Amino acid sequence: MNEEFIQALTEIEKEKGISKDVIFDALESALISSYKKNFGTTQNVVVEIDRDTGQTKVFALKEIVEEVENENLQIGLEEAKEIDDKYTLGDTALIEVTPRDFGRIAAQTAKQVVIQRIKDAEREVIYDEFINRENEIITGMVQRITNNTVFIDLGKTEGILPPSEQIPGEEYSQSDRLKLLIVEVKKTTKGPQIILSRSHPGLVKRLFELEVPEITSGIVEIYSIAREAGSRTKIAVFSKDPNVDPLGACVGFKGSRVNAIVEELNGEKIDIVIYSKDIGEFIANSLSPSKVVKVEINEEEKSALVVVPDYQLSLAIGKEGQNARLAAKLTNWKIDIKSESQYEEIINSRGDLDGEEEEDSH
Q1: Considering its fold, how many domains does the chain have in total?
Q2: What does pTM read for this prediction?
């Protein structure tokens, strides 16, 4: 290694932010391994690289003893004093054992170490960038699909969209541009692994933040989201400003804002409902598009009995119970839906029971 190599390290330090000392330390460790492998020795050795000239030397570490039992690890006192007369028994002597062609081995090793360090540093930079972006939205391009796992080109690196994070029924093709949520960033031996999602409720939240300036500015807030990806999402919003209609802000002029989100999610239905501190009102709103006649609240059990018009019972429950299920997720309350005629039957049976109890008391 020579001064050109030292200059190259200086450039790497400037461009990649990798300290020269870090490379020298790694190089010295790698050269110890190279020396032992190439020269088949069990000696204890250290490698020293001159930080200014790049000159490399190998030294064997030997304990100074009266009687040598292991020549690889020990040296006699007289022989040690020939190297440096300050040595005494019990000291560790440094004896230069640099092989003649060690410069060639050092140069090869240096190249490998530098390449590896640059790779490691670049991976670290990517990890640091993406770990701070967990739960953020990102746009990427489908690069390839292997065993149902979609690999996404994110520019500097690649992200993974596993089957569990895909929208059921959504098809992906090479070069498709997608908006995705960064759900997790993991360190692995091959560099950072970035797990992406299309099915996470957080993706809908971030899409609304992108499309609705009132959400970005904090005037309108998202209270909760319930999602069955690829099918339907319910989102509860409220406004901090009485002059701003949260529903209108999210829907946009002629539905422009919500339609942009629906299009991004390939036609997934989105119900925007108004959050209210009055839980009865919130539950009634959550069952949109169904009309609600009455809500009976049970605070202790965190459950509600909701009464809807007879002709809207199936709408309130939804296909395979989806509307009711999403409303329960959105409000975090158990919801039991009855039609008006079913509710009348319940009231009548309660009345009959009350009458029987009165007769029993007479």
Answers
A1: 4
A2: 0.73
**Which of 167, 197, 227 is where one domain is finished?**
197
Average pLDDT of span 13-34: 81
Among the listed residues 125, 130, 127, the one whose alpha carbon sits nearest the alpha carbon of residue 140 = 130
Edge-to-edge order in the sheet of strand 303-308: 294-298, 303-308, 334-339
- Tell me the pLDDT tens digit for each residue of 303-335: 999 999 999 999 999 999 999 999 999 999 999
CB 66 within 8 A of CB 19: no
Q: Report the CATH number at residue 83.
A: 3.30.1480.10
**Quick one: average pLDDT of 140-147?**
94
254: left (phi > 0), else alpha (psi -120 to 50), else beta? Answer: left
Last residue of a domain, one of 275, 301, 323: 275
| Bridge partners of residue 332, in order along the sequence | none
What tokens does 189 get? Answer: 């031996």
The answer to whether residues 99 and 8 belong to one domain is yes
Residues 338, 343, 346, 350, CA torsion sign: positive
